[in-house]
Amino acid sequence: GAYLPNLRELKLNHSLLVSVRDLGTTLSSLRVLWMAHCGLSDLDGISSCSSLTELYMAYNSISDLSQLTWLDHLEILDLEGNNIEDIDQLQYLGLCGKLSRLTVEGNLICLKPSAGSAEEPDYNYRAEVKKLIPHLEYLDETPASQT
């Protein structure tokens, strides 16, 4: 960040990163970040990228979404194919007031509400996500109103 203070987009897909913290704390102008297939297990340090409007974190091992509450400008979030096992984790995304597009397919929450629960035939993850993030416009690339 010290060498690229005006960096707006950063694509690190398939990189070997231990943590988002490895990016440092000076990427304050970063708007779009791609970190798919990086083997990340958490989002610690993402709050230092406070200007993000788009975040693509597909196919990692992320289960805790609490760090995303600090991203006030976030509009698009891709969490496809991660380890989100508890639908309640999405309540943190409800605090991202500008979030309009979310992708979570390929996570256990699409099959059942929590890791300890049995699969429920009447369970509809789309309806549950809409309750937790009422301002969401698109869920898994389909209008969120279609539950």
Automatic annotation (TrEMBL):
Stored SUPFAM superfamilies: L domain-like
The keyword Repeat appears for this protein: yes
Domain of life according to the entry: Eukaryota
InterPro entries documented for this protein: Leu-rich_rpt, Leu-rich_rpt_4, LRR_dom_sf, LRRC56
PROSITE patterns: LRR
Keyword field contains Iron-sulfur: no
Pfam families, sorted: LRR_4 (PF12799), LRR_6 (PF13516)
The entry's keywords: Leucine-rich repeat, Repeat
Protein name: Leucine-rich repeat-containing protein 56
Organism of provenance: Buceros rhinoceros silvestris
